[in-house]
């Protein structure tokens, strides 16, 4: 399953820079709603759009953190920063808030 997010250039740069830091493997993305179906597919991916294009993705952990004390964003997706795959052909994407399941199927083989 692919979950799409739309990030600013600064957020994407920060997440990608973390790949080069020793010992850093996991990073997180907080969300309001609980994604359905996470963990059923061994290739779950957080697919990132930025500046009007789908640009790449990270492998998602099958677990989700839950923080009931944070009602604004109680769910946290965990992803492996070292798993970043950049798309060679970046299809256009309209800006959206939150996350979406509407990610083009052809992005990753």
Annotation field: number of helices: 1
Based on Cα principal axes, name the global outline: globular
Strand content: 35-45%
- Regarding quaternary structure, what we see is single chain
- Note the run of SSEs as H and E: EHEEEEE
Numbering strands along the chain, what is their spatial order in the largest sheet?
2-5-4-3-1-6
CATH class: Mainly Beta
Main sheet characteristics: 6 strands, mixed
N-end to C-end Cα span: 12 Å
Domain count, please report it.
Answer: 1
Average pLDDT, all residues:
89
Enter the CATH topology name. Answer: Archaeosine Trna-guanine Transglycosylase, Chain: A, domain 4
Structural class computed from helices and strand pairing: mainly beta
Gist of the model:
This protein is mainly β.
3D structure, described in words:
It is built from 1 helix and 6 strands, in the order E-H-E-E-E-E-E. The two termini are 12 Å apart. It has 109 residues and is mainly beta. The chain has a 6-stranded mixed sheet. The chain has a single domain, classed as Archaeosine Trna-guanine Transglycosylase, Chain: A, domain 4 (Roll), CATH 2.30.130. The protein is globular, with a radius of gyration of 13 Å. The chain has one helix at residues 9-17, and strands at 2-6, 26-31, 45-50, 53-66, 75-86, 99-100.
């Amino acid at each position: 399953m692919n979950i799409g997010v739309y990030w600013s250039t600064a957020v994407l740069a920060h997440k990608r820079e973390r790949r080069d830091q020793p010992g850093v493997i996991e990073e997180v993305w907080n969300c309001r709603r609980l994604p359905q179906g996470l963990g059923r597919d061994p290739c779950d991916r957080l697919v990132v759009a930025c500046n009007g294009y789908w640009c790449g993705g990270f492998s998602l952990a099958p677990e989700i953190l839950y923080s009931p004390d944070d009602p604004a964003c109680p769910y946290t997706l965990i992803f492996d920063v070292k798993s970043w795959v950049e798309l060679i052909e970046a299809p256009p994407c309209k800006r959206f808030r939150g996350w979406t399941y509407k990610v083009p199927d052809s992005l990753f083989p």
